[in-house]
Design goal:
Layout lengths: L1 H9 L1 H35 L10 E2 L8 H6 L4 E2 L1 H41 L8 H17 L1
Antiparallel strand pairs: 1-2
C-alpha cells in the first residue's frame, strides 16, 4: 500500500499539479495586491473616490458608518463591493492566464514547426559506394608513394 502511494506521488502529473497549485496561490496573492493597492485607487479616482470594498447594502434597517461597524454589530449585510473586487480580481487573473497560455502555445507551435522542418529537410546526398571505394584506394596509393 505504501509503495503504491509512493508511486502515485512520484508520478510527474501529481508533482506538476502540486507545483501549479502552489504557484497559483502565490500568483493570487500578487494579483489581489495589484487590484487592491494599484488598480482600485485608479478606479476610485474615476468613480469619484468610491472604494468598492466599503460598498454594502444594510438589511437590518439601522444606520452604520462603515461595513466593519455593521458587521461588528452583527447586522445582515449584502457586501456587493467585495463581490465587485472579486470579479475584478478574477478578470485580471483570467486575462493573465490567457496571455500565458497564448505565449506557451506560440512557443510550442514554433518548436513543432522547427521539428517538422528538421524532419522534412533533405539529407545530404549520399556518396555512391563505388566512389567511396575509389576514394579509399586513392588515399591508400597516396600513402604508399610517400
Amino acid at each position: 500500500m505504501f509503495n503504491e502511494f509512493k508511486n502515485f506521488i512520484a508520478k510527474g502529473n501529481v508533482m506538476d499539479m502540486a507545483v501549479g497549485i502552489i504557484m497559483g496561490a502565490a500568483f493570487t496573492a500578487i494579483v489581489t495586491s495589484m487590484v487592491k493597492d494599484l488598480l482600485n485607487p485608479f478606479i476610485g479616482l474615476f468613480t469619484g473616490g468610491v472604494d468598492f470594498a466599503s460598498m454594502y447594502l444594510n438589511l437590518s434597517g439601522q444606520e452604520y458608518e462603515t461595513l466593519a461597524a455593521a458587521q461588528e454589530a452583527g447586522a445582515a449585510t449584502v457586501n456587493y463591493g467585495i463581490f465587485i473586487n472579486a470579479v475584478i480580481n478574477f478578470l485580471i487573473v483570467a486575462f493573465v492566464v490567457f496571455m500565458l497560455v497564448k505565449m506557451v502555445n506560440r512557443i510550442k507551435e514554433a518548436a513543432e514547426k522547427e521539428a517538422a522542418k528538421e524532419a522534412t529537410a533533405p539529407e545530404s546526398p549520399s556518396v555512391a559506394a563505388d566512389i567511396v571505394l575509389l576514394t579509399e584506394i586513392r588515399d591508400l596509393l597516396a600513402k604508399q608513394k610517400k
